[in-house]
Write a structure and sequence with these properties.
Layout lengths: L6 H10 L17 E9 L2 E8 L9 H13 L5 E5 L12 H10 L1 E2 L31 E5 L7 E6 L5 E5 L3
Parallel strand pairs: 2-3, 4-7
Antiparallel strand pairs: 1-2, 5-6, 6-7
Helix pairs in contact: 1-2
Amino acid sequence: MTVLVDPVQEAARAVRAVPDPEIPVLTIDDLGVIREVETAQVRGRPGLRVTITPTYSGCPALQAMVDGVVEAGTRRDVPVEVVTRLSPAWTTAWMSEQGREKLRRFGIAPPTGERAHRDGPVPVGLQLRQVACPRCGSRDTEEVARFGSTACKALRRCRACREPFDEFKTI
């Protein structure tokens, strides 16, 4: 029995599986960067229009993400148009639970809390952020540097197991 595979739908699955260039244990779909994947006529052929919102407007990995999305379609002979949408701004609330768990297993503390992008004042508090160590689970951790290996992460250290780790910042 022969199973027919729709190349456009296969390309759509491949697009959603493109790894994040800075944290390759995540896909850009896990990260919430992919906003929409829709079938469309691209250069006169059936293809995909993929709308992405980078984690921030100056994200140095944006071109690598776009290239990965286009390549996922090209490998399946499906043309892809990538649209970058900056509004509304990306937020860690868009990250999937599966993505947060992948971060934790990889040794990066996932973002905690949710920041909503709504009209109105932003609440400000002087509360010490407690971040659980992704290795041992202790909340007895400290921030060592506000910026870690990438701008979206902070460097932390666990006082219990003494291990350093990255924290994905809540945005």
